[in-house]
Predict the structure.
Amino acid sequence: MNDAMVRAEEVRKSFGRLEVLKGISLEVRPSEVLCLLGPSGSGKSTFLRCINHLEAIDGGRLSVDGDLVGYRQSGDKLYELRDSEVARKRAEIGMVFQRFNLFPHMTALENVAEAPVCVGGQHRNAARTAARELLGMVGLADKENAYPAQLSGGQQQRVAIARALAMKPKLMLFDEPTSALDPELVGEVLDVMRRLAQEGMTMIVVSHEIGFAREVADTAVFMDGGVVVESGPPAELFGAPRHERTRAFLSKVL
Amino acid sequence: MRHPGRWVAGAVVLLLVTIAVHSVATNPRFGWGTFGDFFFDHRILHGVVVTIELTVISMAIGIVLGVLLAVMRLSPNPLVAASSWTYVWLFRGTPVLVQILFWSFISALYPRISFGVPFGGPELLHGSANAVITPFVAAILALGLNEGAYMAEIVRAGIISVDEGQTEAAHALGMTRLKTMRRIVLPQAMRVIIPPTGNETISMLKTTSLVSVIAYSELLYSAQLIYSVNYRQISLLLVASAWYLIMTTVLSIAQYYIERRFSRGASRNLPDTPLQRLRRTVFSFRHASVDVSGASGAGR
């Protein structure tokens, strides 16, 4: 099976002496939406950040679209990629952060058009036209000249999604995209993500939004203590969890 | 009286100011006549131009060097980071006056300076150190290299102040380390870098006066040359001081507007400039007086 978009085999990661990922294995097929759940400290965000090499893994193998993440294999040896090569790979993967991380010194439009111009080498006007379209798609056509500080949390996160989409990624990573939002702003962000899933985007979502996972995800994965406890279709995982730890967690968040 | 303390303090301050002004105006030794005679003297004006030149060039060297050293200091390569640290240690750890003297006496250390392949390879350019390192070059080198050490720390503080999430977001979009630095981190670091850089520029303008020790005719040395002939030390030092004050005042105003420009995006609305505030006060005052006359008119 080499047609997986993301393939993790026994992925390990430690911060100093603390082992955060203790051998994660999972697969994400193209156009699949996978939801990662688990208590804080379970390693789900760390795993997500390994997928675009924001964190380097210490063991196991991790590949995106058939290519190893952050390394090149030559014979039996792995060589770490150079900064520019890592950057080129990252450009193919979109990421949305819990705290939005919009560039505060740029307007919404400039935020979205920045990477296509500065990384993709697109012409400035073409990038701005495309950026306008993306802002329209997330329902913020009228906010293109607003600075992030002038936008609500939900609006900022939608700009952040548009910014990630501007690089036409083949995979989108969402790191708790709604956790920093006021409850009434969560819906507008989930709506955009739902539409993205319907259009066939491959997505890995770290989230506590069980409703969203149940409705949109193809697979739900429950992690705890740096390992995958169980995974399966959301209806099964939420409806009839097999493990005690999953049951205990779900009883708290449901 | 609602604030008796304020009135007392005001009276004391007023009295002290009056005493000072009276003394300055009536003490003939200030030599205000000589002050006026030499204020626009061509030698003084030339000194002013040279001081500005030294300040601009030294600050330019210092800022470029500072950014370079700061980025080096934050490099993941320990050798690069350590060389930056050593530079700052050396140039910040010795007095700038000593450094000025050192550069002016450099020919004692290296009588001949050449560019080419080291260890006996062919030379591309060469000349005697006395010809290459003129007092001007010595001054620029001393001030610029010294400033680089201070600017490095200022730029580093600015870079560190930018949220790590910014770097992560830029990396996730596919920007390389350098591009992230140039497009995302440095523009945001500017807000933290600019106020102390303004202070450094103002400080540099005054530090250039140290160059007088190597007989380079910037503003102070120009004044010294004149008083060494006419013995009007006080008047000429006052002329120099007045020019320094004028220049630092202009720089302070420039600094205010540059800071404003770089705080875009940091707060929702920029505060008014003093000029805008003045205009609005005058405008609202006029409005108020119109309202009052309208009201009294209606009352009649």
